[in-house]
Write a structure and sequence with these properties.
Largest sheet: none
Number of helices: 23
Order of helices and strands: HHHHHHHHHHHHHHHHHHHHHHH
Shape: globular
Strand content: under 5%
Helix content: 55-70%
């Protein structure tokens, strides 16, 4: 999962400051500010390897999916997610060049925009709270607090720990967001490597336990020991279609929900939406699969049920201290920007108050929520409900762009006609949520599938209501010109497309950082190439081997990034 793009509406007292700072929240993006494809390839590949992957990977094991259903379901679902970015979100973003917040306010009016910001703020706050709990689970291991995997905490010490971690998170969200964003850039390659090597290290251990049980073949071992097709309670697990729907819908607020309009509006070409594949198949395929293997392996070694273990316990058993660091880093690099963006979303509603005051208030509530372990043990279910609430807005925007012009209605017709509120949009949102509630109540339909009928209902109902409730038709108009203005804003002499600073592969710090990652990866294959080695014993050796390599990597990567920024400023 990613955590991107929240911003104030035009009622925010800081709106002018945001525009002047170069964020262009309420201006269409001119050619001089548009970015090359390299930016989006790097952004997507790094943003979808986060603390949520520890939780989701293990949860998919506990939900009882089979190995083949998991693999094919993730391939199908992630493909649908990529196409949702490339075929729906990216064309709208690059045509309108607007943030979703500005677009939605122009489309539906202030009331709908306010309500959307509240729901969006809750989404980011829940995500931040879950990641605070995940980070706290790593510190819990160091001070020997019992694992917390129930609905509520059973240890006062854990509550105090979660409050402390939450306090640091709130402070960094207020004071150090830019620093943390840069730190996240350094962390991303290492985090990807930690997920990958956790799976590579764990498979020989799975093979060891499988041979003890008389199982032949890796596939049979995976089916018997990891993705068994049944839940811990012995009930049938979820199907390939439910897995595909989850992989597709988990990031729905960003693609079919249109939140990534705020990022992709900077894209020079709509085709850059395809670069989301780097994040989906690294973060939501490789990382989920490896996190599931690591979790099941840790459960085998500790002789415990996976549902009774938290991310800190799992990562420490396989990767030692660096596993705990991975949990903390992944949790914080997700929690801090999520909390920051939750504060922005709520501040756009409570715009009479200072941003710092609103952010602190949101942070306090989020930290209290983080004290309750259910916020991460039930994360998949909670996110599914929030996705159901946000899906109609994305469908309304998609219908405004793709369907209304074909019916002779210009995009952003509410603004053009001077109507205060877009009643069709309001009624569509209410209707879709009612459909979602009915779907949830039906035992035949899994919660993870509900977003599909909700989105489709909104996509169909909104144009019909527009036609019947006052939207003026203008057959034959150039709807693109009438709705958004010129294809691109006026270009000034000397404007050029922006790109990231070039990677200086001659920088010795670059070679050193890459070298550390390569050694970390190659060392994880030792039990595979040396059949005489004991995979379980080697894990203990590997835990210490990666400590100096990790320290060296962070030093080298930080210096390389520093040199890169200095070179770009020259």
């Amino acid at each position: 999962m990613s955590s991107q793009s929240a911003g104030p509406t035009t009622n925010s007292p800081d709106a002018d400051d945001v525009v002047q700072s170069g964020e262009l929240e309420f201006q269409r993006i001119p050619p001089s500010k548009q970015l090359s494809g390299k930016y989006f390839l790097g952004a997507y590949s790094g943003e979808h390897v986060a603390g949520t992957e520890f939780v989701i990977g293990a949860s998919l094991v506990s939900l009882g999916v089979s190995t083949s259903d998991l693999i094919w379901g993730l391939i199908l679902g992630n493909l649908m997610a990529v196409l949702s970015w490339a075929w729906v979100c990216s064309p709208i973003a690059t045509r309108s060049r607007m943030t979703i917040y500005w677009y939605l306010e122009r489309l539906a009016g202030k009331k709908v925009s306010y309500l959307y910001n509240i729901v969006n703020g809750v989404l980011y706050a829940v995500l931040a709270g879950a990641m605070i709990t995940v980070s706290a689970s790593a510190f819990r291991v160091l001070i020997d607090i019992p694992p917390q995997t129930g609905l509520y905490p059973t240890s006062v010490s854990f509550v105090l720990l979660a409050l402390a971690v939450g306090g640091v998170t709130v402070f960094l969200a207020l004071k150090g967001f830019k620093l943390i964003a840069n730190f996240s850039t350094v962390c991303a390659p290492w985090m990807i490597m930690m997920f990958l090597v956790s799976g590579i290290l764990s498979l020989p251990i799975v093979t060891h336990f499988g041979e003890q049980q008389g199982l032949n073949g890796l596939g049979a071992m995976l089916d018997a020991l990891i993705w068994t097709g049944t839940t811990p309670e012995g009930e049938p697990g979820i199907s390939i279609w439910v897995i595909a729907a989850w992989a597709w819908g988990v990031n729905l607020p960003w693609h079919l929900g249109m939140s990534d309009m705020s990022i992709l509006r900077f894209a020079r070409k709509a085709s850059y939406g395809y670069f989301s594949a780097s994040g989906m198949f690294i973060g939501h395929f490789m990382a989920w699969v490896c996190a599931g293997i690591m979790g099941a392996t840790a459960a085998l070694l500790l002789k415990e049920q996976l549902i009774d273990m938290d991310p800190g316990t799992i990562a420490y058993r396989i990767l030692g201290g660096m596993g705990l660091l991975a949990v903390v880093v992944a949790g914080w690099t997700t929690a801090i920007p999520s909390l920051y963006r939750a504060g922005l979303a709520f501040q756009s509603v409570f715009y009479h108050h200072k941003r710092s005051t609103v952010s602190v208030s949101v942070g306090v509530v989020t930290t209290v929520i983080a004290c309750f372990p259910f916020v991460f043990t039930s994360l998949m279910q909670v996110l599914s409900y929030l996705t159901m609430l946000l899906a109609p807005i994305g469908a309304i925007i998609a219908a405004e762009h793709f369907l209304l012009p074909r019916l002779g209605i210009r995009p952003l017709w509410r603004e053009h006609q001077g109507v205060e509120d877009n009643r069709p949009a309001m009624l569509t949102w209410i209707t879709a949520v009612v459909v979602g509630i009915i779907m949830v109540a039906l035992p035949q339909i899994h919660l993870f599938l509900v977003f599909i009928p909700v989105w489709l209902t909104s996509f169909i109902v909104y144009p019909l209501l527009c036609l019947s409730m006052g939207a003026e038709t203008e057959p034959g108009i150039d709807y693109l010109e009438a709705g958004y203005g010129p294809v691109d804003p006026p270009e000034l002499p000397g404007d050029t497309v922006q790109s990231h600073p070039a990677v200086n592969r001659r920088d010795p710090w670059y070679f050193l950082s890459i070298g550390c990652l390569v050694v970390i990866l190659l060392a994880s294959f030792w039990p595979w190439i040396n059949e005489g080695s004991n995979a379980i014993d080697y894990v203990e050796t590997y835990k210490w081997l990666i400590v100096p390599l990790t320290v060296t990597y962070f030093i080298a990567a930080t210096m390389w990034m520093r040199n890169r920024r200095l070179n770009s400023d020259e």
